[in-house]
Specification:
single chain; five-stranded antiparallel β-sheet; 22% strand
């Protein structure tokens, strides 16, 4: 679900970037530094025992489409939102976990702890798929390693997009590259001459 702010404030230059952390299989969390401490749940203090207002971390209330409100703060790489569990109001309850959402510049949620909480309520049936791919590249003067790098980058980008945008029934959680190798074949053209045969060597 995209989030579109109503009358969004101008985004100033020089904002810090939110930090992307891997929390587990298929789970990423965006954090930020406040008073030399890295914050990942801004509805609690650093001891995680007491409720804390997002206002203390520089968040302000914004209105979003669908009559939703949220605590919001801009970062260089997106916007972090804090809402109630339902994801429709900035009014938080000290007794319930806050929903923390991180949006990319287009408003697409890269992180939604509410979605993770929903997923945690069921037992996931996880299967790993291992596949061997052979791709042939025309180097056009480049080094062979450039082909390997290009293929890894292409696959990584495709799989990351699948994690974000796929509407398939099965959901990709994570991926990793286990190994790769270069198969360099020695091609000789018809004009090549094997002088060892001429010299009877």
């Amino acid at each position: 679900m995209f989030w579109q702010a109503v009358n969004p404030p101008p985004k100033p230059e020089g904002l810090p970037a939110a930090i992307k952390r891997r929390m587990g299989m298929g789970q990423m969390r965006y954090t930020f530094v406040h008073d030399h401490l890295e914050i990942d749940d801004l509805s609690q203090d650093v001891s995680t025992r007491y409720f804390k207002s997002p206002r203390d971390y520089g968040f302000t209330v914004r209105e979003y489409d669908g009559a939703r409100t949220a605590w919001a703060r801009d970062f260089e790489n997106g916007t972090m939102l804090v809402t109630n569990v339902a994801g429709d109001s900035h009014v938080l309850s000290p007794k319930l976990p806050a929903r923390i959402i991180f949006l990319d510049p287009t408003g697409y949620p890269l992180q939604d702890t509410g979605a993770l909480q929903s997923a945690d309520q069921r037992d996931a049936e996880v299967v790993k798929v291992r596949m061997t791919i052979t791709a042939t590249y025309d180097l056009q003067g480049a080094e062979p390693e450039a082909a390997r790098s290009a293929l890894i980058a292409l696959l990584d980008e495709t799989l990351v997009d699948a994690m974000r945008f796929s509407e398939e029934k099965v959901r990709l959680l994570d991926h990793a590259f286990e190994s790769s190798s270069l198969l360099i074949e020695d091609h000789k053209t018809s004009s090549d001459t094997d002088f060892s045969k001429l010299l009877d060597l």
